[in-house]
Every structure is written in C-alpha cells, then in structure tokens.
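Note to self: user wants both folds in one dump. Writing first protein now.
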Amino acid sequence: MKGQEWYQADDVAKEYDDKRFSRGGQLIDRREKEAVLEAIMPVEDRNILEIACGTGRFTLMLAHQGADVVGLDISAAMLQQGRQKTRNTDISGTLEFLRGDAGRLPFPDDHFDTVIAMRFFHLADDPEAFLQEMRRVSRDQIVFDTFNRFSARSVYNWALPMGSRLYSKSEVAVLLAKTDLTLLDVEDDFLLPYGLYRAIPNALASPLRALDEAIGGRQIVDHLASVSYWNAQVR
C-alpha cells in the first residue's frame, strides 16, 4: 500500500488530527461523519468493522451511537492515538482497536453487519482485492469513499507525500460489479479540494463551504465533485 512507512510514523500519528481536522478541516470532519451516519443508520446494536480506522474518528463516533465496533489499522501509532481518546469516555456500544492488514482481514466470513473504509481507497494498490476482502467479512453493507479523477483533487494530487489514487464513477461501478455488490446510494461533494479547507481558518472556510454547497447542489456539476461517498449492499 502506498506510503505505509510515512503513515505509520509516530510523528505523523501525533499530528494527524490537528493537521487534517482543525481549522477549516473541521468542516471536512463534520461532513464525513454525516455521510457515514446517514449510510448506516440506525447505528445502535450494529456490528461494525472500520478498516484503516486511523486515530478512531469514526470508530468512537459509532461506539458512542451504540454500535459494537472494531477499528483495524496497520499503524500501531495511529491505534495508540485512538486508544487515548477512549480514556475517561462513556461509550454506549463496545469498541476494540486491532492492528491488522486490510488485505488479509483476521475475521471469518460474514462476521460484521457493516464494513466501512474512509480515507482508504486512494491508498489501495489493488482496490478490487481490498473491496473483495471487505465484502467477505460483511453480511450486509459496505460503506467507503473515493477521491474523484475529474475534479479539483487532481490539481494537487501529485504533491501528496504518500501518493493518491483517483477514480472515475465508471471505475467504481466496475469494482462493485466485480465484487458482487449492489449500489444503494452515492453522494458527491466538495467541488473545492480537501487540501484547501485544511489550509485556511474556519472563519474563511465556512463561507467557502457555503458557496461550495450551493453550487455543488446542482446535479449538473456532480461529476466535478472531489469526493464520493458510496453505500453498497452485499448480494
């Protein structure tokens, strides 16, 4: 997988949330969590696996909502950050952090109701194999996001330290068909790239986001969105 050494570094893990989800990045965090909750609701009592859980943004949110969640990640440093967030925290469901490889998930077939993978597919060397493995351990639902090829994301993609894979809608449709998944819903968002929001204060990011939502809400510009949130069902 791209950038594994970079991603697993201790200093990257310590600064990960602050660099990506503070300042204008708070708007990204809010929208991504909204997309996950909308796809999975009702969350309570669902058995969920999050692949590439990082510092636990989604795992903690889902556990607070009453789900039984396993967060899996290749980075011990990221997992440690996630475990620190659970200290002195009242969680309605259950939460376990586990180190593991997304290409060889350490679970039996049909083990989870839902499997999610956010901020993952742009790093995947073999997206079909990873999606097939996600499907294997899910008995109901797969939720993931992709960064889109024909969008502003491509402008700065080359500068990312760990590289990034961009997808067209047709490529994802083929992946779903090959892995025997049925698309339930897809949402497109963020005409402006994530990197711009992370680089500016929230006071400036908020009006830009409002403009982005106003223009992006028109179906004619959906194909220019930077990110898509996919909700698929196991057949």
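First done. Writing the second protein, which came from a different request thread.
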Amino acid sequence: MLGDKLLVAPVFSDDTALFYLPEGKWTCFWTDEVLEGPRWVKKTNYPFTQIPVYVRENTVLCLGPEDIGVPDYDYGSVGLHVKSYALNQGQQVTVEIPSGKGKQWAGKVSVQDGKANTEGTVSLA
C-alpha cells in the first residue's frame, strides 16, 4: 500500500502480476477496470513496463502535467487534472494541494457528483 488510497503491486515475472486487493472497490489507474476485494488477483500477459496501480473507492487524485519529468513545480499553479474514483453518490471528497514550499498549502479541491470546486490558488486543467 502507498498510503491508504493506492495499491502498487510489484511484477516478479516477465508477464504475470499476482497481488492481493483488500476489501472494497478498486480501480486500475491505467485502464479504469474496477475490481472488488478482498481477493487475490492474477493478471497474465501483463505488460512488463506497466506496474499494477489500483485506487481505492472514494478517492480523488490530483495529477500534474504529463509533460513534466520531475514534479518540483508549484502544485497550485500548473493546471492539475482531477480524477475521482468510485465516489458514493452525494459524497464530497476534499484534497489539500501543497504549494511545494514546505508546509504551506496552495488550496483545496473538493469533488462531489463528478464536479470539482477549488478553494485557494489552485489551477485546474
């Protein structure tokens, strides 16, 4: 587990990924396939260049630009892409966005029913 919202599984063979998903709904970061846990998952013919990453339900990820190699930018002003995963209807999830300057926050992003609202100096793509 990478925190309590992301599961990152290693691939130990050329084409097979075997990992355990804890209880709940999990969405593949790469394909948006939704799987239900708890259970073991075995994926054959798995691309060696794509590590399994699954996102827990009721999660909001704020992703920076794809064309920046090193994420050492001001998170509040680069044009974040907000992606929500299996939010319960009517539920609001709020994420604080770091400024990239120590313990300061650039602002917050709240997502409810597929709509993102910002607070502070956060720029969305």
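Dump finished. Worth passing along: The chain has two domains: 6-56, 60-120.
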